[in-house]
Amino acid sequence: MDLDEYQRGALRTAAPRDKRNELLHLVLGLVGESGEIAEKFKKWVRDLDSDESRIDRADIAKELGDVLWYVAVLADYLDLSLDDIAAANLAKLASRQGRGVLGGSGDNR
Predict the structure, then answer these.
(1) Other CB atoms within 10 Å distance of the CB of residue 36
(2) I need a surface site. Which of 30, 51, 58, 63 has the fewest CB within 10 A?
(3) Rounded distance between C-alpha atoms, residue 95 and residue 100, angstroms
(4) Domain NTP pyrophosphohydrolase MazG-like: where (predicted)?
(5) What's the longest Cα–Cα distance across the chain?
(6) CA–CA distances in Å: residue 20 to residues 15, 25, 81
(7) Contact 4, 81 (CB under 8 A)
(8) CB atoms near residue 46 (< 10 Å)
């Protein structure tokens, strides 16, 4: 499955674009799902002494799937292709690596 195919599939379960406050719903959903991943890792640090063998990978995979759904639907809402976003991101990172600024800070480096 490629990213645009996933994006089309995600849209089958998305609310219509013209639903009131749908853009805000998508942004807050993405933040919320990302926060759920952070929360699980916080508990992993607190309760499991950061033991990597005790990460519930299946549970994290479910949460990452939720993040991916929100990214896909939000991108579509903004008329963006996930394939294009992924390709541009890899090109940006390769450029930074080639110029020796991968570890720096700031968007325009």
Answers:
(1) 16
(2) 58
(3) 9
(4) 25-97
(5) 46
(6) 10, 9, 23
(7) yes
(8) 9
**Which residue type sits at 27?**
V
With CA atoms as reference, report the closest residue to 57 among 78, 34, 40, 80: 40
Q: Which amino acid is at 99?
A: R
The CA distance from 78 to 39, in Å, is 28
Residue 48 φ then ψ, to 5° = -120, 15
Helices (H), the chain: 3-11, 22-48, 57-77, 82-98
